[in-house]
Amino acid sequence: MGWILVTSATVILFLQNYPLYIRSVPTENELKFHYMVHTSLDVVDEKISAMGKALVDQRELYLGLLYPTEDYKVYGYVTNSKVKFVMVVDSSNTALRDNEIRSMFRKLHNSYTDVMCNPFYNPGDRIQSRAFDGMVTSMMIQVC
Prior knowledge:
Strand order of the largest sheet: 3-2-1-6-5-4
């Protein structure tokens, strides 16, 4: 059970609520983003348990908008192995539609899967992959 945060400013990958990958641009708001991600985990857990009770199609991994704040919108995604991805985007960024957010999560999930399939990566260690970092950077540039 882990989660990932992607924003126009921060990217974090967590496994069992332990950070595996952290990236902030700019760094002055890093603590604020960490707080928003931690508070969104409750909403993610609620949505996951509601999905289990309703027996929703298990192929739908996108949780949608978790909650909006004045400055940011928080989106969620969960994998079949219960790794949680959380994306925080500026509310002022109206160019991002639900389909773009969904495709960003898929791209992030595919890159995460590539990291996990690396035989030299030990699950639970911090991710130090240049390919993953490059993909995240390119995604953050597109979001900004």
